[in-house]
């Protein structure tokens, strides 16, 4: 009787664990952010405690998403962000996943938010460490700033067309991102975030199945310096 009861409990535990780790998404958005455009707004920004980040694209997040445009979030309340699990990645995170939120801080809140809201929805393939490591390695593979430079698109405060930006990135990386713009203090549209799509196993770029719900650009896009 007791054995049967513990078997029943075990099966319930396995079912709950299995559900928590089930894949409830079809692909990922890897979202990269241009720090110059984050800061060049009415709201401005705050450099992190580690100092002004490099003038390069930083990571915003790696977000599981569904083909219909919806996405799961906050999937595992038991997997609170634990900085000690990524202690070997902290210097890479500071360099490649910098926070620009105010007030000035060490980035732990930003990384914790990304893991808890998005990362926990891909626990079928990632733990906290591999989530951050994978996003960093995907970002490094793209070398977006080099791709843009090769296409003559540089963060010099100049203006570019959407096709100049997309063509340069497609030629340099093999994939075309969705380009999101925000507005500078004078209301000009500027290159803010790039959404690349990554397949469900988290190790291959793909063409995006659906556009994100993000602000599209006009055809005159500023690329501010940082
Ligand atoms: C994702 O892409 C990688 C590399 O191209 C490939 O090995 C893997 O099978 C792909 N996974 C899916 C689910 O398509």
Describe this structure in words.
The protein is α+β, with helices and mostly antiparallel strands and 226 residues long. The protein has one domain: Ribonuclease Rh, Chain A, CATH 3.90.730. The protein is built from seven helices and seven strands; from the N terminus they run αβαβααααβαββββ. The protein has helices at residues 2-20, 35-39, 90-96, 108-117, 128-142, 144-150, 162-173, and strands at 27-33, 58-65, 159-160, 178-183, 189-199, 205-206, 221-222. Strands 1, 2, 4, 5 and 6 form a five-stranded antiparallel beta sheet that branches. The chain has a two-stranded antiparallel sheet with strand order 3-7. Strand 4 (178-183) and strand 5 form a beta hairpin. Helix 6 packs across helix 7. It is globular. 2-acetamido-2-deoxy-beta-D-glucopyranose binds at residues 199-201, 203-204. 2-acetamido-2-deoxy-beta-D-glucopyranose is lined by residues 199-201, 203-204. GO terms for molecular function: hydrolase activity; ribonuclease T2 activity; RNA binding. It holds the Pfam family Ribonuclease_T2. Belongs to the RNase T2 family. InterPro entries: Ribonuclease_T2_eukaryotic (IPR033697), RNase_T2-like (IPR001568), RNase_T2-like_sf (IPR036430), RNase_T2_His_AS_1 (IPR018188), RNase_T2_His_AS_2 (IPR033130).
């Amino acid at each position: 009787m007791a054995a049967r009861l513990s078997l029943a409990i075990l099966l319930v535990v396995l079912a709950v664990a299995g559900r928590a780790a089930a894949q409830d998404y079809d692909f990922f958005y890897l979202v990269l952010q241009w720090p110059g455009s984050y800061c060049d707004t009415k709201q401005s920004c705050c450099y992190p405690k580690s100092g002004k980040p490099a003038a390069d694209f930083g990571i915003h997040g790696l977000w599981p998403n569904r083909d219909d445009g919806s996405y799961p979030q906050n999937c595992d309340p038991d997997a609170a962000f634990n900085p000690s699990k990524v202690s070997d990645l902290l210097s890479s995170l500071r360099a490649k996943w910098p926070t620009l939120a105010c007030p000035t801080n060490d980035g732990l809140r930003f990384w914790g938010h990304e893991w808890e809201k998005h990362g926990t929805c891909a626990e079928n393939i990632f733990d906290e460490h591999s989530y951050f490591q994978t996003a960093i390695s995907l970002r490094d593979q793209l070398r977006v700033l080099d791709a843009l430079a090769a296409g003559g698109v540089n963060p010099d405060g100049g203006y570019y067309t959407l096709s100049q930006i997309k063509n340069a990135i497609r030629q340099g990386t093999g994939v075309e991102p969705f380009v999101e713009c925000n507005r500078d203090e004078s209301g000009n549209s500027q290159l803010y975030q790039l959404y690349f799509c990554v397949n469900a196993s988290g190790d291959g770029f793909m063409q995006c199945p659906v556009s994100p719900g993000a602000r599209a650009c006009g055809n005159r896009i500023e690329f501010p310096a940082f």
